[in-house]
Amino acid sequence: MKHVFTLLLAFLLFSSCNDGPKKSYKPASIGAINSVGVVISNDLWEGPVGDKIRENFAAPIVGLIWDEPIFSLEQMPKKVFTGTTRYRRSVLYVDLDTVNVAHVKTDLYASPQKIGVIKGRTQEEIIENIETHAEEIIQAITAMELKETQKRFLRSLNKETILEEKFGITIRLPSIYKLGKQEDNFVWIDREIQKGSMNIIAYEIPRNSLTNDSTFVTDFIRMRDSIGEKYIPGPDFPDKKTYMTTEDAFAPYFFETEIDERRTIEARSIWDMENYPMAGPFATFIIDDEKSNRKLVVEGFTFAPATNKRDYMFELEAIIRTIKFK
User: Is CATH 3.40.1000.10 correct for 162-325?
Assistant: First the structure.
């Protein structure tokens, strides 16, 4: 009887383990950040469909000195999309078919993974689907790429607490970034890169600042330029003062977004150096911190002459979007 009872108990335990939902384990996805594999026939890629894909998915990013695409596209025919190639993190699958559909699939072959699927019965239907659904697919891939970039920061984090002490925020900052300067209401953190530097600055302004829609742009530029003049000097010269300003020739682009569930205005454009030939892109995030009756301004900017800057600015944005208010 003892043996019968033991076997019965083991059977029940085994059955209860198998009653739960089965987990699906996917291999880790692969691929460079902001690189999209485009699975499409050569004929479609070389015609109007390919032109429409490039027009949308390789469109120039706003706020950079010269044109750089949203995504780097790598075309491949369907017969190549097999094996580990299916583990690419970001994929756009475009094909002539008997159905007319467009949607985003998540973690189909690997994790994390986004596959934008666009099909049509004719080339005209495919082009229409690209025009209608490209923004949805771009947003899904971009959100995933930001999370993937932020996850990679966890490999080695900076333990500096200056932003928490001064502004009451935490941020997921890679250890390669170092504290460069701090004042009463200003912190500058940077990292050296091969041909320049990547930078994050933070400061507070009164909550009633930048509230007039009719003067918002000029008020924003005046604010940036005053911070640049006070805290961000250029090379020393005996007969002239150099400091960061906002490039006059490029009007800033403004977007509404959120950081840590707080309404945020995002601004992108070009900075330059007063009285000295230096320039680069910046992305400023003006966070409405109602609980503390202030606006917190956090900006990322890059100096990297003769170098593509898309991925640098993407990393800075990914860092800033990890901000949490204490």
Answer: yes
User: What's the CA gap between 284 and 205, in Å, rounded?
Assistant: 13
- Per-residue pLDDT band for 319 (boundaries 50, 70, 90) equals very high
Q: Domain segments of the chain: what residues?
A: 35-153, 162-325
Name the helix (H) or strand (E) containing 317. helix 310-320
Question: CA angle, corner 27, sides to 25 and 31, nearest 5?
Answer: 150
Work out the average pLDDT over 266-294.
Answer: 96
Q: Which CATH architecture does the domain made up of 35-153 adopt? A: 2-Layer Sandwich (3.30)
The total of other beta-carbon atoms located within 10 Å of residue 3's CB is: 7
pLDDT tens readout for residues 112-121? 999 999 999 9
pTM: 0.90
d(CA 226, CA 61): 27
CB atoms within 10 A of CB 174: 16
End-to-end, the C-alpha distance of the chain in Å comes to 62
Answer for the pair 114, 144: CB distance below 8 angstroms, yes or no. yes
Residue 89, classified by CB atoms within 10 Å of its CB into exposed (0-12), middle (13-18) or buried (19+), is buried
Report residue 9 as tokens: 């108990």
